[in-house]
UniProtKB/TrEMBL annotation:
Top-level division of the source organism's lineage: Bacteria
Gene3D superfamilies: 1.25.40.390
Keywords: Lipoprotein
InterPro entries assigned: SusD-like_2 (IPR041662), TPR-like_helical_dom_sf (IPR011990)
Pfam families: SusD-like_2
Family annotation (SUPFAM superfamilies): TPR-like (SSF48452)
Keyword set includes Plastid: no
The name this protein goes by in its record: SusD/RagB family nutrient-binding outer membrane lipoprotein
Species annotation: Larkinella rosea
C-alpha cells in the first residue's frame, strides 16, 4: 500500500469569498511541517475525488471515461491512432492503475474523520464517512477483494491484508449508518459551510446521499443468492430512518462558486474534452464520440430530445453560438461511431459530446458524482424485485420519475418524458414493456450516459444490458469484467496480492456479477 504524506493544499478561499481566486495557490514554508485543518483537507479531498473519477487536461483516462467506452456509450473518434489498450482490451497491470490515487484520497477522508473532534469540526465526520464509503464501493467494483480493515493506518500496517469484497460491501452499509448518525448529531457550523463544496453544509442532503449510496450497494447485490432477506431488511431500515434519498437534484462537486476561468481551475470535464481557460478547443474534443449503437437506439425509440443533449450534430458545436450545433439539429445529422472502429468516421461526419457535457464558456458546472435519475432507477428496481419493501411508490412511478430526471439533468424539456407514457415503446412505456427489470436497466444505461461512466460499465457487467455490439478490434466475445491489481501494489504488498489467486480480467468476475 502506498504511504502518503499529509501535505494538503489549504483551500482558504472557500471560507472567505473575497479570496476565491487563490484556492489552488500554494504558499508554504518548506522548512516547517504543515498542520492541516480538517476543513481544508476535506475541501481538497472532494476536489481530488472528482479529479480522480472524471479527470482533467492533465490526467489520462480516468474511471468515468473508460466506463463510457466499455459500457458502449462512447467510442474513439477517427483521426487518432486506435487505442488498443481500451478498444482491443490489450491492457496489463500497468494500465488503469486507479488504485493508488483512490487510496491517497481515502487517506484524506480518514484524516478528517480522525481529527475532526480535536479541531472542533465534528460536522465533517459524517460527510467524510459518506465519501469514504463511496470510494471503497468503487474500488470493490473495479478490483474485487481490497485492503479495508487494515487500510489507512499509515506506518502501523505497511502490508495490509485484503478483505473479502462481500464483507467490504456489508461493512459499507454500517459505515453509512454511522455517517448518518454523525450527520444528525453534528450540524455544520455556519462559518464552515464553504468547506463543503458538494452540499454547502446541508446535513439533510448528505444523509440523503448516504441513503442513495446504500441503495446502490444493496441493489448491486440483488442477483447474489441468499441476499434477498438482507437486502429487503436494509431497504426497510432506510425508509424507517426517514431522511429519504436524493431527489430532483444531483450530487456534484464544485460549481460556479469553486471552478474558475483559470488554467488548472476549470471543471475537469470541460478542461479535458472541451476548451481551455481562454476558450480554445482542446485537442481531445474530437476523441470521445457517442456510439452508433447509442445514437441509433435513441433514434429508433423517438428519443431525440435526449439525443440532442447527449450529442452535438455532425461537425460539432457552433463556437459562435455556444450550446448549438454547426449543422441543423435534425436526426439525419446525428451519426454515431461504431465501437472501436479505426477509420471512416471523421469529426465532420460524426456526432460529438453534446451540450449536456460541453458548452463553450460553461467552465464552472459541478462535477457530477451521482444523479437523481440514477437514484430513481435504483428505487424502481428495488420495488420491482421486492414488492413488499416499504418504499412508498410503485416501481412504475419510480421508473417514470427516473426518465423525467434524466431529461432534467441532460437539459432537455422534461415535458418530453411524458410522451413515453402509454407510447407502447418497449423499455420506455413501463406498462407495455415485456420485462420490467430490462426496461429499468436500459433506461438507467441511457440516463448514466455522459454523467457516470464507471457506474454504467459496472451496471452493464451486472445486468448484461443492453446487448452491446463487440468492439471492431476484437475477434471473439471476450470483454473485461474487472481490472488487474496494479503493479505498484504488487511491488509493495506482493504477498497479499498473490494471496488473491490468479486474476484473469476476462473471467475472474466480482461477487455480484453472477451471470
Amino acid at each position: 500500500m502506498k504511504l502518503k504524506s499529509f501535505f494538503i493544499i489549504a483551500f482558504v478561499a472557500l471560507i472567505g469569498s473575497s479570496c476565491k481566486e487563490s484556492f489552488l495557490d500554494i504558499n508554504t514554508n518548506p522548512n516547517v511541517l504543515p498542520t492541516a485543518s480538517p476543513s481544508f483537507v476535506f475541501t481538497n479531498a472532494l476536489n481530488t475525488t472528482a479529479t480522480n473519477l472524471i479527470g482533467n487536461s492533465a490526467t489520462g483516462t480516468q474511471p468515468n471515461e473508460l466506463g463510457y467506452y466499455w459500457a458502449g456509450q462512447w467510442s474513439q473518434g477517427n483521426g487518432y491512432i486506435i487505442n488498443t489498450t481500451i478498444f482491443a482490451y490489450n491492457f496489463t497491470n500497468g494500465d488503469f492503475t486507479y488504485w493508488d490515487a483512490y487510496y491517497d484520497n481515502l487517506q484524506d477522508y480518514q484524516f478528517v474523520i480522525n481529527n475532526a473532534d480535536a479541531n472542533n469540526q465534528k460536522y465533517l465526520k459524517g460527510p467524510a464517512k459518506v465519501m469514504k464509503a463511496m470510494l471503497y464501493q468503487q474500488l470493490v467494483d473495479m478490483y474485487g477483494n481490497i485492503p479495508y480493515t487494515d487500510a489507512l493506518k499509515g506506518g502501523e500496517v505497511l502490508a495490509p491484508k485484503f478483505d473479502d469484497q462481500k464483507a467490504v460491501y456489508e461493512s459499507l452499509i454500517t459505515l453509512l449508518d454511522e455517517a448518518i448518525a454523525d450527520l444528525k448529531a453534528n450540524p455544520f457550523a455556519s462559518a464552515f459551510t464553504g468547506s463543503d463544496i458538494v452540499f454547502k453544509g446541508s446535513v439533510t442532503k448528505w444523509a440523503q446521499f448516504a441513503n442513495s449510496l446504500k441503495m446502490k450497494i444493496l441493489i448491486r447485490q440483488s442477483k447474489v443468492a441468499g441476499k434477498e432477506t438482507y437486502i429487503k431488511t436494509e431497504i426497510n431500515k432506510i425508509v424507517t430512518e426517514g431522511s429519504g434519498f436524493i431527489t430532483g437534484e444531483d450530487v456534484g462537486v464544485g460549481g460556479p462558486s469553486f471552478f474558475l476561468a483559470t488554467a488548472g481551475k476549470l471543471n475537469g470535464v470541460y478542461d479535458r474534452w472541451g476548451y481551455d481557460a481562454n476558450g480554445a478547443k482542446r485537442a481531445l474534443n474530437n476523441f470521445p464520440r457517442p456510439t452508433q449503437f447509442l445514437i441509433n437506439s435513441l433514434k429508433a425509440a423517438g428519443d431525440t430530445l435526449r439525443m440532442k443533449r447527449i450529442a452535438y450534430a455532425n461537425s460539432g458545436e457552433n463556437g459562435s453560438v455556444p450550446g448549438t450545433s454547426i449543422l441543423k439539429e435534425v436526426s439525419a445529422n446525428y451519426t454515431g461511431t461504431p465501437f472501436g472502429v479505426s477509420s471512416g468516421y471523421l469529426p465532420a461526419n460524426t456526432t460529438s459530446l453534446g451540450p449536456s457535457l460541453i458548452v463553450k464558456g460553461e467552465y464552472n458546472r459541478p462535477a457530477i458524482l451521482m444523479t437523481a435519475s440514477e437514484v430513481q432507477f435504483l428505487l424502481a428496481e428495488a420495488k420491482q424485485r421486492y414488492s413488499d419493501v416499504t418504499l412508498p411508490l410503485t416501481a412504475k412511478a419510480y421508473f417514470e420519475a427516473g426518465i423525467v430526471q434524466s431529461f432534467r439533468v441532460l437539459g432537455a424539456n422534461v415535458a418530453g418524458a411524458e410522451a413515453f407514457k402509454g407510447s407502447k415503446i418497449e423499455n420506455y412505456d413501463f406498462d407495455a414493456s415485456s420485462n420490467k427489470l430490462t426496461a429499468i436497466a436500459i433506461q438507467k444505461w441511457i440516463a448514466l450516459t455522459n454523467f457516470s461512466g464507471l457506474e454504467a460499465w459496472t451496471e452493464y457487467r451486472r445486468t448484461n444490458l443492453p446487448v452491446l455490439p463487440q468492439s471492431v478490434q476484437v475477434a471473439d466475445a471476450k470483454r473485461p469484467v474487472r481490472f488487474y491489481y496494479p503493479n505498484t501494489e504488487s511491488g509493495s504488498n506482493g504477498a497479499n496480492v498473490t494471496a488473491q489467486g490468479t486474476i484473469d480480467a476476462f473471467s475472474t468476475k466480482l461477487f455480484w456479477d453472477v451471470d
